[in-house]
Amino acid sequence: MSSTTPDLDLAAIRQDFPLLADRPDGTRAIYLDSAATSQRPRAVIDAEVDFLRTANAAVHRGAHTLAAEATEFFEDARATVAGFVGADPDQLVWTSGATAGLNLVAYAIGNATAGRGLPASARFALQPGDELVVTETEHHANLLPWQELAARTGAVLRHIAVHDDGTLDLESAASVIGPRTRVVAFPHVSNVLGIVNPVVALVEMARDAEALTVLDACQSAPHLPLDLPTLDVDLAVFSGHKMLGPYAIGGLYGRADVLADLPPFLVGGSMITRVGLGESEYLPPPQRFEAGTQPVSQAIGLAAAVRYLDGIGMGAVHAHEVRLERRMREGLRSLPGIRLLGDAEGADRVALCAFEVEGVHAHDAGQFLDARGISVRVGHHCAQPLHRRFGMTATVRASAAVYNTDDEIDELLNAVSGIRGFFGAGA
């Protein structure tokens, strides 16, 4: 397997991933579905297993030595992952993933609207007619919580349109974000289009409206150098299983003042200072938002994942993936009967392409590729409104990561070139 990227030893990297390493029978997995779930390096698997074998105990709850050790590992993991996104440890809340983080924020705002929380929580309270702004490109996880919040509070949900080339319409954003806007929630990178959105411009518009900004960083954290405080967003979420880490772990980043004033969503053990039969008092962030049993081994696994990415260097990761994306996009463009979504010239991107095969349903195309050992995603990718915007119900999505190679992209392109002929949809 060859590579033209001098900065990365791809053969060595692939050996770090048990599922991707060359197999004794000579077969290998061509995994191009990392936007859904990435593969895990051995270091991540080993870190989680080693913790379970040697230090497994409840954190923040026991006075015995094992509990103290587990707590230290847990909080060291928080510091490691927070540092990966440029944050301080007390700015990172552990969640079960980005979906949980977004729901946490939306329900916390709803609790503030209901008069719950500290006196300072009132700054998040919504009034009927206040506006929540999303984009036409949202993953359902960054759309449905705001729909529900609007329904509960009488707020109005509005959206920023997308151009035909997949870029966000900033004129639409300027017309939508206004005096009644209270929240602007948007993706750093679309999970269908792969385009890096103009965070700075959107944050400036939101700041002018004194609105809260919520960033979905699921598709940027594994692929771009990420400094959330520099981006100046108020809140952001990311998911471990998309960035070489375990399932059921993710992070909610928040500006210190925002987290300090938000009321909790889930309540219970581990997030309290005093509990009475009539009322209770809660810990400061991040523990205020971490009720119940924590995902300890998963957090330790995620810390190992970000150490692995840091060891390669996020600049090198991004450069490698940009080159793979260009190879994939240019190759798909050259094939007859292939329609790419978000094919904007000059846009910053991650290594992700969603496309339609003319005359062939996306699920049939995906099965054709799977029969040739190529794993891709098919469907609406939890972005039905965006697909409807482009007149589609489903697409094929190929998404690469640090462990993918030129050869794999070429094999994808060669296989895609045969889909229409196989189904009698074209020459």
Q: Which percent range fits the helix content? A: 25-40%
| Order of strands across the main sheet | 2-8-7-6-5-3-4
Element pattern in H and E: HEHHEHEHEHEHEHEEHEEHHEEHEEHEHH
Under the CATH scheme, the architecture of the largest domain is: 3-Layer(aba) Sandwich
Number of domains: 2
Radius of gyration: 22 Å
Largest sheet: 7 strands, mixed
What top-tier CATH class of the largest domain fits best?
Answer: Alpha Beta
Number of helices: 15
Number of strands: 15
Low-confidence stretches: 1-6
Question: What fraction strand?
Answer: 5-15%
Oligomer state of the chains in this structure: single chain
Shape: globular
Integer average pLDDT: 95
Q: Specify the CATH homologous superfamily of the largest domain.
A: Type I PLP-dependent aspartate aminotransferase-like (Major domain)
Which fold name corresponds to the CATH topology of the largest domain?
Answer: Aspartate Aminotransferase, domain 2
What's the end-to-end separation, in Å?
Answer: 31 Å
Domain Aminotransferase class V: 30-412
EC number: 2.8.1.7
Catalytic activity: (sulfur carrier)-H + L-cysteine = (sulfur carrier)-SH + L-alanine
Cofactor: pyridoxal 5'-phosphate
